[in-house]
Amino acid sequence: MDRLDNTIRPYAWGSTTAIPHLLGVEPSGEPQAEMWMGAHPGAPSRTGRGTLAEVIDADPERELGAKTVARFGPHLPFLLKILAAGGPLSLQVHPDLEQARQGYADEERRGVPLDAPHRNYRDANHKPELVCALTEFDGLCGFREPNRAADLFDALGVDSLKPYADLLRARPSDAALREVLTAILTADREEMADTVAEAAAACARLGGDHAPYADIARHYPGDPGVLAAMLLNHVRLQPGEALFLGAGVPHAYLNGLSVEIMANSDNVLRCGLTPKHVDVPELLRIVRFEAGDPGILRPEAAADGEEVYDTPADEFRLSRYVLPEGTTGHDLTLDTPQILLCTAGSVRTGEHELTPGQSAFVPAGEKAEASGAGTLFRATVVV
C-alpha cells in the first residue's frame, strides 16, 4: 500500500480556501481547484516507489490485477479528484466512446497537434464522471423542460430573448433546445454581449431562480454561455449527494467542494463560460438534446457498511465508509486496484494514518483494513 502525494491544480476558477481548509493548512491566497489522485500522465500521484504511473507501468498485473488489465489494458482507468469550485467551470459536454474514437482518429488523420488550442479530442476515450458533494455544491446538469426555460427568459423582460422563448414553447422539446442553443452560440458576439448584460442585470434584480445566472454573468460578463446555462437544470447538492454525468449531457460546476471521479480522458467540448475554443458544429453533434430531471444520486447500502454510488460506468466505482468511533480491522481487500481517500476524521490503513485530504493506493489483492473513526471514500473499477 502506498501513501499518495498529490498535485493540486491552480486553475483560476478554484477556491482559495476549500482545499486548504480540508487539509488543515493555511491558504496561500492562490486558487486551488483540483487535487488529482491517480496515474494520469498530466499529474500522476507520487509514491515512495516513484510516480503511480511508473509503479503501474513496471508491473501492471501486480498492481492492477489480471482482470483489470484484461478489461481496460495496463493502465489505471480512472482519475479521482477533490474539486473545489470558487466560481463556475466552463459549460461542457463529453463524447461517448465511439464518438471519441472517431473524433480522435479524424484529428490524428488531419494532423491536428495534440496541444493545439482548437483540438477537441486529446485521446480516444470517453469521459463519464461522478461528482459527490462534501459541502453544499451547486451545478448545472442536463436540459430543463423547454417551457420552464422559456419562463426564465420571459421573466427577464429582455426583448431580444423573446424569440428564444417563443421557439422553446412552439417546437418539440429536442428540436426547440437544439435551435435555441444553436442560435445563442452562433449569434453576433457584440450583439449577444449586450443581450447578456441586460439579462444579467435582470437576473440580479429578480434573484430567486435567476440568482445563479447573475453570479455566472459576474464571472463571465457578456459570454453567451450565460444564456445557454439558463437552458439547464440548476442543482444544489447536499453533502453526500452526487450527480452522474454521462456522454452528451451539458453541465458545469458552480461552487462548492466535492469528490469527483471520471474515466481517464481529457475529451471536453465546451459550450461557453470560457475563453477557450468552442467548436459549435462538433458540439451540436455530441450534445444530447434531452430534457428531464438531472437525477440526484444518494449512496446505496451494500455489505459491511459500504455505501455505493451506483452508475453505469465500468471504469470506476465510487463508494464510502462512515466508520464509527472504535472501528478496528474493517476489511477492505479487493481483487481490483483501489484508491482510499479520507475526507473526515482519522483512518488508519496499513501503516498509513489518513487524515482529511490524504489518500493511499492499494494494489489488487493486497490486504487492506481500516481502523479509526471518519469518512473514507473508495475508488475502484468494475470488472
Keywords for this entry:
single chain; 383 residues; alpha+beta; eight-stranded antiparallel sheet; 12 helices; 29% helix; 30% strand
Summed up:
This protein is an alpha+beta fold and 383 residues long. Helices cover 29% and strands 30% of the residues.
Estimated helix fraction: 25-40%
Shape: globular
Q: How much is the average pLDDT?
A: 95
Characterize the quaternary organization of these chains: single chain
Major sheet, described briefly? 8 strands, antiparallel
Annotation field: number of helices: 12
Distance between the termini: 21 Å
Please mark out the parts with pLDDT under 50 across 5 or more consecutive residues, or reply none.
none
The overall strand count is 20
CA radius of gyration: 22 Å
Structural class: alpha+beta
Name the beta content range. Answer: 25-35%
Describe the model.
Helix content is 29%, strand content 30%. It is an alpha+beta fold. Strands 1, 14, 15, 16, 17, 18, 19 and 20 form an eight-stranded antiparallel beta sheet that branches. Strands 2, 3, 6, 8, 9, 10, 11 and 12 form an eight-stranded antiparallel beta sheet that branches. A hairpin with a 5-residue loop joins β14 (300-301) and β15. α6 runs antiparallel to α7 (162-170) and α9 (189-206) packs across α10. The model has no long low-confidence stretch (mean pLDDT 95).
List the topology elements:
Blueprint: E1 2-4, E2 7-9, H1 18-23, E3 34-37, E4 46-47, E5 50-51, H2 52-58, H3 60-64, H4 66-72, E6 78-85, E7 91-93, H5 97-109, E8 129-133, E9 137-143, H6 146-156, H7 162-170, H8 173-186, H9 189-206, H10 211-219, H11 225-229, E10 232-237, E11 242-245, E12 251-263, E13 269-272, H12 280-286, E14 300-301, E15 307-309, E16 317-331, E17 338-349, E18 352-354, E19 359-362, E20 369-380
Antiparallel strand pairs: 1-19, 2-3, 3-6, 4-5, 6-12, 7-13, 8-11, 8-12, 9-10, 9-12, 14-15, 15-16, 16-20, 17-18, 17-19, 17-20
Helix pairs in contact: 6-7, 7-8, 9-10
